[in-house]
Each structure stands twice: as structure tokens, then as C-alpha cells.
TrEMBL record:
UniProt keyword annotation of Transmembrane helix present: yes
Name the UniProt record assigns to this protein: DNA-directed RNA polymerase subunit beta
Domain of life, per lineage: Bacteria
Organism, as annotated: Ornithinibacillus caprae
Presence of keyword Nucleotide-binding: no
GO CC annotations, alphabetized: DNA-directed RNA polymerase complex
Keywords per UniProt: DNA-directed RNA polymerase, Membrane, Transcription, Transmembrane, Transmembrane helix
Transmembrane segments: 73-99
InterPro entries tied to this protein: RNApol_su_b/EpuA (IPR024596)
Comp. bias (Polar residues): 1-25
Region Disordered, residue ranges: 1-65
Length: 123
């Protein structure tokens, strides 16, 4: 007996419940609205959206923690420039000393670069 009752209960659960009938009065009201009323409604919605956005921004500002940079931006710029200069000097020394079969320290001499410029401009 208990198994038949359980199966009946499951069958009852699986049946779809009828949907409640919608209120026809609200549908008729929506149809009767004029354009001006619709425009007013959208304007008020826009105003409330703007107000909501302003409130959200104000809350974000309040909740936002101030950020203390351990490595300041101006120091980052200096470090990047120094690293770029070191890469340039390292590249010159490798190019002149290793690839060009010269002394790597000669790449830093002013006379070496003056000689290279003279060779280029003499034609």
C-alpha cells in the first residue's frame, strides 16, 4: 500500500499546475497609455538611473582605499631609463667586441665613434 501511495504522490508532483489567469485590467491600462505618458515614464526612469549611478559612485569613493605606492612612478621611470642605457651599452660592447672581433672596452671610447662617423661621411 505504501508503494502505491508514493507512486501516486510522485505522479501528482510531476503534473503541471495551471497558471493563474492574468489580470486583463492591467493589460488594458497599458494599451490605453498615451505617448506622452510613456515619454514621462522613460524620463523619470532615466533620472532615477542617473541618481542611482551617482549614489554608486559615491559609495565606491567611500569604500576605495587610498593606495600607497612602494615603488613610485617617478622612480620607475628613472629605473627604466637606466636599464635602457645599460642595455644599449651592453649591446654596443657585445657587438663591437664579440661579433666585431675588437676590444669590448673600445666601444666606449669617443675616438672609436668619431672614426666610424668619419668613415660614413667621407664617401
Amino acid at each position: 500500500m505504501s508503494t502505491t501511495n508514493q507512486s501516486e504522490q510522485k505522479a501528482n508532483r510531476n503534473q503541471k499546475q495551471p497558471k493563474p489567469k492574468s489580470n486583463n485590467h492591467s493589460v488594458e491600462r497599458k494599451r490605453k497609455r498615451s505617448r506622452s505618458y510613456e515619454e514621462e515614464l522613460t524620463e523619470t526612469n532615466k533620472q532615477t538611473r542617473k541618481q542611482q549611478k551617482k549614489k554608486q559612485k559615491a559609495e565606491k569613493r567611500k569604500l576605495k582605499r587610498s593606495r600607497r605606492r612602494i615603488f613610485p612612478i617617478w622612480l620607475r621611470i628613472i629605473v627604466v631609463l637606466l636599464l635602457a642605457g645599460a642595455a644599449l651599452i651592453g649591446g654596443l660592447m657585445i657587438g663591437f667586441g664579440v661579433i666585431g672581433d675588437g676590444d669590448p672596452k673600445d666601444a666606449l671610447n669617443k675616438e672609436t665613434w668619431q672614426h666610424i662617423i668619419d668613415i660614413i661621411k667621407k664617401e
